[in-house]
Amino acid sequence: MDYLWTPWRYTYITSADRAPGCIFCDKIAENDDRKNYIVHRGEHCFIILNAYPYTSGHVMVVPYAHLDQLVKLPPVAAHEMMDLSQRMEGLLREIYNAEGVNLGMNIGKCAGAGVAGHVHMHVLPRWTADANFVSVVGETRVLPEALETTYEKISRSFR
Predict the structure, then answer these.
(1) Is the pLDDT reported for residue 123 higher than 60?
(2) What is the spatial distance between Cα 102 and Cα 95, in angstroms, rounded to a whole number?
(3) Which candidate, 148, 151, 123, places its Cα nearest to that of 59?
């Protein structure tokens, strides 16, 4: 049997439910966008890299308002969330030559939300046959670039 080690996931796995506060609110308050991988700040929402991405280029569009349901989000923020998701679709197609894009929200812990108390939209590039045997059989992701490189590529596109 082969083993693929991902020790950086241990911190996430063991602290996800125990961390006080909200990871999105905490990161936006720090005002260190590079350190926190915040690639863009809008008026009502910001875009942040997923620290544990499914693919390189996986971002999240997050409203500043800490709300646990999409229905509670003011229309102006919901519209900006969709506008930024559309913009990210175009950028991911351009930067990564993505053949497709997944958009998705998991609202509530039982729906699979990693951050259940703060709604957010996942936006990630996809390619034909990008779910190879390592992902499917080994339940492990192989990412071709570091988060720092992804941050530079995407944040540069917003400047």
Answers:
(1) yes
(2) 15
(3) 123
Q: What angle do CA 120, 122, 123 make, to 5 degrees?
A: 135
In CATH, the number for domain 9-13+20-158 is 3.30.428.10
**d(Cα 145, Cα 60) in Å, to the nearest integer?**
18
How many helices (H) and strands (E) the chain has is answered by 6, 5
In this structure, what DSSP letter does residue 140 have? -
Query: Which of the residue ranges 17-31, 89-103, 115-129, 145-159 would you say has the lowest mean pLDDT?
Result: 17-31
Residue 12 to residue 129: CA distance in whole angstroms: 28
Beta strands per DSSP E along 23-120: 38-41, 45-49, 59-63, 100-104
DSSP 1: -
Token pair belonging to 123: 């936006």
Task: Let me know: does 32 contact 121? Beta carbons within 8 Å.
Answer: no
Q: Is the pLDDT of residue 105 over 60?
A: yes
Rounded to whole angstroms, how far apart are CA atoms 52 and 110?
Answer: 20
Rounded to two decimals, the pTM is 0.82
Q: In what order do the strands lie in the sheet with 100-104?
A: 38-41, 45-49, 59-63, 121-126, 100-104
Residues annotated as catalytic are 120
